[in-house]
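Per your request, structure below.
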């Protein structure tokens, strides 16, 4: 674990509701310690900041920082700074990434290829079933589900991943040590045990309405794409979809009945160009088009058995997923998953005749 930057925690506490000002100061001065030692007029020239409050920050927040440090000593408790190598690479690409992230659980899950899933807090029974099934399918083929642990669709997505025996990431609109809504105590415990709770808010900070749009950009920023399961026309889920679009990520939507008001937001997204999703295969096929981005952030790793089996059949020329399935003892979802992963690793590509190997001759 890197040495704890206590000055950064003090500055973070002072500017927790002004993340852009925090980034501006750290970028200009290079460190929190340098900010505390900088001339007041120079700080005021960069951002409107109460210099007296800055000078008193160590006194004002001393008790809070002592509690923060004590919490961070706990097992599987993490503080991830944007300048650390384990900061999520895709999240760093967005225009306003958080400077600090608190985590509880297995932070290695941040290295996985992820898909965000969001939706209504008051979904239909069909919406809940669709969310759980699709989250389970996507988890079973290697994608990590990211959501916001809200009531309704968010919770169903996390549950679908957990039921599939997979890890999932919950991005919170509270401090990482606060469970909101309170009825999700058990769900939060399971996510922390098998995945990761993540927050850009200081510890012990409770929910506030303006926290959730900030939370949404982190949910989408961690993922290759975002799936909207159910959403009304005026819905926070559409804010998430807009975040994903602005971040240059894929947007997917599950259609519903024409008399279901919670499907109208999804239908509008589809009209606006989102990919219509009926099953995991629709998502996997579309994600193959973002291979270049994922390649830049996917570490080198040995091929899995499924990847080796699929790749070995591509040396003779282009083949479709159906042709590969016919030659292998694998389900079509497993073939598609292996193909997407191989594309993400830069080892295969799509041509009009199917998939081809990019492996150099003789290798």
């Amino acid at each position: 674990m890197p040495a704890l930057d206590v000055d950064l925690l003090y500055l973070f506490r002072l500017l927790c509701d002004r993340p852009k000002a925090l980034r501006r100061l750290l970028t200009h001065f290079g460190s929190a310690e340098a900010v505390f030692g900088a001339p007041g007029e120079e700080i005021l020239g960069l951002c409107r900041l109460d210099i007296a409050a800055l000078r008193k920050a160590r006194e004002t927040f001393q008790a809070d920082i002592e509690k923060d440090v004590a919490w961070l000593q706990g097992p599987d408790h993490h503080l991830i700074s944007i300048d650390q190598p384990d900061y999520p690479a895709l999240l760093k690409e967005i225009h306003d990434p958080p400077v600090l992230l608190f985590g509880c659980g297995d932070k290695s899950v941040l290295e996985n290829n992820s898909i965000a899933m969001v939706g209504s807090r008051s979904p239909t029974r069909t919406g809940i079933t669709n969310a759980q099934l699709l989250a389970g399918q996507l988890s079973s083929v290697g994608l990590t589900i990211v959501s916001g642990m809200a009531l309704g669709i968010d919770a169903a997505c996390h549950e679908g991943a957990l039921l599939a025996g997979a890890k999932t990431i919950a991005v919170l609109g509270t401090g990482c040590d606060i469970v909101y809504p309170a009825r999700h105590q058990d769900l939060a415990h399971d996510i922390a045990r098998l995945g990761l709770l993540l927050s850009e808010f200081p510890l012990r900070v409770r929910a506030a309405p303006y926290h959730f749009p900030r939370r949404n950009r982190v949910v989408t920023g961690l993922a290759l794409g975002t799936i909207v399961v159910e959403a009304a026309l005026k819905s926070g889920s559409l804010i998430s979809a807009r975040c994903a679009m602005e971040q240059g990520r894929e947007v997917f939507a599950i259609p519903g009945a024409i008399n279901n008001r919670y499907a109208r937001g999804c239908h509008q997204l589809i009209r606006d160009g989102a990919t219509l999703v009926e099953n995991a295969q629709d998502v996997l096929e579309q994600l193959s088009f973002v291979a270049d981005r994922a390649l830049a952030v996917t570490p080198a790793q040995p091929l899995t058995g499924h990847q080796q089996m699929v790749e070995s059949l591509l040396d003779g020329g282009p083949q479709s997923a159906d042709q590969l399935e016919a030659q292998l003892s694998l389900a079509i979802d497993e073939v598609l998953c292996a193909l997407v992963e191989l594309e993400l690793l830069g080892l295969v590509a799509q041509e009009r005749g199917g998939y081809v190997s990019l492996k150099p001759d003789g290798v």
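Residues 1-73 form one domain.

Regards,
D.
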